[in-house]
Amino acid sequence: MKLEQAFITQIMILMSIRNGKRRPSEIARDVNITLQGVIYHLKILRSNGYIDDDNNITLTGFNYLYNGLSDMENFFKSNLMEMDSIMTWEAIAACDLNKDERVYLYMDNGYLYAKKDKMDGATGIAAISTKKGGCTGVTSINGIIKLDVGSVDIAQISNVEENVNYKILTDRLKNIIESKKYHFKGVLGEYAFTVLKQSNIRPDFEYAPIESGYDAARRGFSTIIVTSKRMMHFYMDRIKEMQKQYPEININMFTID
């Protein structure tokens, strides 16, 4: 993926407008380009329907800005991932390791391990010597680390004012959780918390459960997050962001009536 300079400049100008700048001179100072450059790009943004005559961002402009920021995020993220291959990763030593020794990498219980025994997958070079159970750095990583990613299920329950039968709701919830044998359980919102409490289910993730669920999934664990329909509405944008960030992770949303 390649980012054109004009595209980056236009995104910066839209961000400046979003942050309250309207006059070209203000925008020029804010994004550190010439006044002539700002006027040129404002003309293009206006002709594309991204801003109006008063330099307000239109709905189309907001969509362009959002997608543009997402593209920039993916661009930097992909380049950082390439940089990681020549940088140092943390890994737990599965045995005593010596500096500059070739090691083989694998995931176990959500953590990266390094060992001497040859195996398929990713390899690297130990950056420091360490004893078994200690942590070493690994550089010059080649290959792919084998890992079966987990999933994130989001169970939506009724809103509190709907007066759903608690017994029926908790029984259905317990059956779903027990049938799939999730590694972790998360909760989002006060009503969902009380329903889990009535079901004698202790949540593993009470704070930032969506982010925690995705982090667990990329380490190979599956999570169910219980929330109300109302709270789901407020967090849809965050879920979409996580889907873009981790497209390899499957998310399943369903309703428990």
TrEMBL record:
Domain of life: Archaea
GO MF, one annotated term: DNA-binding transcription factor activity
Xref: InterPro entries: ArsR-like_HTH, DUF7839, HTH_ArsR_DNA-bd_dom, UCP_HTH_arc, WH-like_DNA-bd_sf, WH_DNA-bd_sf
Gene3D superfamilies hit by this protein: Winged helix-like DNA-binding domain superfamily/Winged helix DNA-binding domain
Taxonomy of the source species: Archaea, Methanobacteriati, Thermoplasmatota, Thermoplasmata, Thermoplasmatales
Pfam families noted in UniProt: DUF7839, HTH_5
SUPFAM superfamilies: Winged helix' DNA-binding domain
Annotated source species: Picrophilus torridus (strain ATCC 700027 / DSM 9790 / JCM 10055 / NBRC 100828 / KAW 2/3)
Span of domain HTH arsR-type: 9-52
Membrane-traversing stretches: none
Name the record gives this protein: Transcriptional regulator
Residue span(s) of domain DUF7839: 147-246
